[in-house]
Amino acid sequence: MAPPPATEAVNYGELTTSYANKSNYDSGVIPNKEMVTRLNQSLSTTNNWDGFKFAPIRESTVSRAMTRRYFNDLDKYAESDIVIVGAGSCGLSAAYVLAASRPDLKIAIIEGGVAPGGGAWLGGQLFSAMIMRKPAEKFLEAIGVPYDDEGDYVVVKHAALFTSTLLSKVLAFPNVKLFNATTVEDLITRTDPETKELRVAGVVTNWTLVSLHHDDQSCMDPNTINAPVVLSTTGHDGPFGAFSVKRLLSMGAIEKLGGMRGLDMQLAEDAIVKQTREIFPGMVVGGMELSEMDGANRMGPTFGAMALSGVKAAESVLEIFDLRKQQNDSQ
Ligand code: AHZ
């Protein structure tokens, strides 16, 4: 549902933003009164809460409903087609494009935090609005996020509106499983017996709370997920960030990291999108993790490059998928 252009703006009381217009109310991009009336009617609660009662349940039923599904998913995704490490704005954008383009592929998203979304719940310095430079508004239109058109850039009234909408679409795909509160601790690698080429062939995971305690508890071995392609979008260096490129460095698979440079919005956004690629056999990197690999500038609080790096990352993953799958199946 594409938000209509600013010229259709109408004034609904105090609401004067360009997306507070009739067609966004009619189409349900902004929930309307009829939707709430229908909800009340279907619950039969309008002015009638006295006789309200939930359907019956036993506690073990709740427990089994959760655990059966989770362990089925662990079993199913132990062999994934694509693993995305990090559910920030780049990883989620890539997941959206990948899941929609290839409903036949199993996509596991591993997110260290309890809350997926990375740094995209707020704009800069904990302010609310999210800025995207054009043409990234095309991505907002694709996922149905309303925005204000400011000429060369657009503004989403709250970053959480972008992230929650994107997340809800990604989670609705039947071929996507998000394992949150789960950290990628290491990479699975394979050496081609003939060419001796090293490649990434999956990830090593653990509950994040366990990962945080390797220094004071012993014998907490991890779990694994095999996959022909890993897409890493773990953000720039920090307590958790740039995980995969740092691990490639420490295992001697790459010689050095460029190290993220100072802020330059103009240079940074184009560079991140253009450089999104398979940086090592079996591993595509997108978003701010790339700045650590290549020595690119940071862009600060403008998020268009994260969405479009996600779009390009999905394209890069699909370009190499058949070759990497063939190699993965034979080893
Ligand atoms: O929790 C991390 C976050 O949600 C997650 N993550 C990091 N390491 C992980 C690991 N296992 C599992 N080892 C891990 N998950 O990865 C996510 C990264 O999200 P992000 O928002 O930090 O990165 P991004 O590249 O998608 O977006 C960057 C947004 C920025 S930073 C920036 C600047 O500093 O100038 N500007 C922008 C737009």
Strand content: 15-25%
Q: Report the strand count.
A: 14
Assign the CATH topology.
Answer: FAD/NAD(P)-binding domain
Order of helices and strands: HHHEHEEHEEHEEEHEEHEHEEHEH
Q: How many structural domains in the coordinates?
A: 1
The CATH class designation is: Alpha Beta
Principal-axes geometry comes out as globular
Subunit structure: Homooctamer.
GO cellular component, one term: nucleus
Keywords: Cytoplasm, Iron, Metal-binding, NAD, Nucleus, Thiamine biosynthesis, Transferase
Binding site for substrate: 90, 111-112, 119, 184, 221, 236, 288, 298-300
Please describe the structure with a list of short key phrases separated by commas or semicolons:
331 residues; alpha/beta; FAD/NAD(P)-binding domain; six-stranded mixed beta sheet; three-stranded antiparallel beta sheet; 14 strands; binds ligand AHZ
Task: Please outline what is shown here.
This protein has 331 residues and is of the alpha/beta class. It has eleven helices and 14 strands.
Give your account of this protein's structure.
By secondary structure, this protein is of the alpha/beta class. The protein has one domain: FAD/NAD(P)-binding domain, CATH 3.50.50. The protein contains eleven helices and 14 strands. A six-stranded mixed sheet has the order 6-2-1-10-13-12, sandwiched between helices. It has a three-stranded antiparallel sheet with strand order 3-5-4. Strand 4 (148-149) and strand 5 form a beta hairpin. The longest helix is centred in the C-terminal third of the chain and has 26 residues, at 304-329. It starts with 21 loop residues before the first helix and ends with a helix. It catalyses: [ADP-thiazole synthase]-L-cysteine + glycine + NAD(+) = [ADP-thiazole synthase]-dehydroalanine + ADP-5-ethyl-4-methylthiazole-2-carboxylate + nicotinamide + 3 H2O + 2 H(+). It comes from Nadsonia fulvescens var. elongata DSM 6958. The modification 2,3-didehydroalanine (Cys) is found at residue 219.
